[in-house]
Amino acid sequence: MRKGVYLLLIMFIFILSSCSNRESGNAKLDYDQTKKMMVDLLKTDEGKKAIQDIMTEKEMKEQLVMDQAIVKETIEKTLTSDKGQEFWKKAFKDPKFAAAVAKSMKKEDEALLKDLMKDPEYQGMVMDILKDPQVQKDFTQALKSKEFREHLQQVVTETMESPIFKAKIQDILLKTAEETKGGKQGGKSGESQGGGGGGGGGGGGGGAGGGSSS
Predict the structure, then answer these.
(1) Angstrom distance (rounded) from CA 210 to CA 200
(2) pLDDT at 210
(3) Predicted pLDDT of residue 203
(4) What's the CA gap between 6 and 53, in Å, rounded?
(5) Nearest Cα to 2, choosing from 57, 44, 41?
(6) 36-87 pLDDT, tens per residue?
(7) What are the pLDDT digits (tens) for 153-165?
(8) Which residues form the Spore germination GerD central core domain (predicted)?
(9) Confidence band, pLDDT 50/70/90 cuts, at residue 208
(10) Are 29 and 23 in contact (CB under 8 A)?
């Protein structure tokens, strides 16, 4: 533990000393070199072990827990400030950043949406939006667009080619064939029984006629 702490202290002292001795001409170069050296040190087994030891130390854990409220408050103030809102607007215009955030919060968003769909107030808001004539018009135009039709065709094609979909269709066809076969067999059995009954009745009638003639 102490060895790891000493290693980190040496690293920080080295950085401070190099930063204080920078000259205007090679300041950028010295900073980049120092930064690279620190990153390389942190990537070593000793550097990783030092960080792990510090983070697992009881006092550090307690300090992190105590600072959670402060961190939360700071983040909330930053996000709700004018500069914070402007930053997020610009950040979300970057497709890569937006995709990364969406991917990282996918489970949370799905859970939130499911909870909202159970909320009567939210359901009413969604229905009000869908009843808006402009929304209905935009939705209809989107459905008629070439891009949507091509997308729908692609989805249908991918679904039809899906092994799971093929297996379900096969099960349905086999079940239908078995039900049809069973129905036909039941019909034939009923017809044969009816024919036998008619034959027996005819034979009985013939016997009765012979008795009367005698």
Answers:
(1) 16
(2) 46
(3) 46
(4) 12
(5) 57
(6) 777 777 788 887 777 777 777 777 666 666 566 676 777 777 777 787 778 7
(7) 898 888 888 888 8
(8) 64-176
(9) very low
(10) no
Q: Is the dihedral of CA 185, 191, 197, 202 positive or negative?
A: negative
Encoded tokens for 22: 């920078």
State the first-to-last Cα distance of the chain, in angstroms, to the nearest integer.
125
Closest CA to 12 of 34, 33, 30: 34
The pLDDT mean for the chain works out to 72
Q: Helix, strand or coil for residue 1?
A: coil
**What's the token pair of residue 21?**
């001795």
Sequence-distant (6+) residues with CB within 8 A of 201 are none
What are the DSSP calls for 88-145, one per residue?
A: HHHHTTSHHHHHHHHHHTHHHHHHHHHHHHT-HHHHHHHHHHHH-HHHHHHHHHHHHS
